[in-house]
Amino acid sequence: MAPAMIPSLRARDYLSDVKPIWCPGCGHFGVLSALTKALAYLERPKHEIAVISGIGCSSRVPAYLNCYGFHGLHGRALPLATGLKAARPDLTVIATGGDGDGFSIGGNHFLHACRRDIDLCYIVMDNAVYGMTKGQASPTTPPDWTQSALTPHGTGIPAFRPAAIALASGASFIARGFSADPHGLSELIARAILHPGFAFVHVLSPCRTYRPDDQSSWKQAVHPFGEHILSTAETAVDTPPGASTSTKLHVQDDGLGLGVLHEVARSQASTSATAGANPDRQAALDAIEAELEA
Amino acid sequence: MIWQNDNQQSITVAVSGSGGSGALTAGFILLAAAQRCGRYGLMMRSAGPQVRGGESVAILRIGPSTVTNIGDRVDLLAALDWRNIERFQDELALDANSLVLHDNAAGAVPSGIAASGAEQRPIDFGRRAAEHNGGRANMIAVGVLGGEMGLPLQALLDATDAVLGKKAPAAVDAAKACIATGHGGTTAGQTEREPSTAPAAAKRWRLSGNAAAGLGALRAEVGFIAAYPITPASEMLEWLAPRLERAGGTLLQAEDELAAVNMLIGASFGGVPAVTATSGPGLSLMTEGIGLAVASETPILVVDVARGGPSTGLPTKSEQADLNQALYGLHGDAPHLVLAPLDVGDCAFTVEWGSRLAERLQTAAILLSDQALGQTHAVIDPPPRCPPVLGRKGVSATSAQALTDNAIDSATDRAIDSAKPANAFARYAPSADGISPMPSPGIPGFEYTADGLAHNAQGTPSSSASDHREQLSKLMHKLTAHDYGDAWARIDRGQLADEPADSMISLLTWGSSWGAVQEATTRLREQGAQVQSIGLRLLAPLQHDQLSRAIAGTQVLVVEINATGQLFRYLNAERVLPPSARSFARPGPLPLRPAEVIAQLRLQRPQPDADENQAGGGDEHAGESLQAADVGGGY
Ligand SMILES: Cc1ncc(C[n+]2csc(CCOP(=O)(O)OP(=O)(O)O)c2C)c(N)n1
Ligand code: SF4
Ligand SMILES: [Mg+2]
Question: Which end of chain B is more exposed for a tag (fewer CB within 10 A), N or C?
Answer without folding.
Answer: N
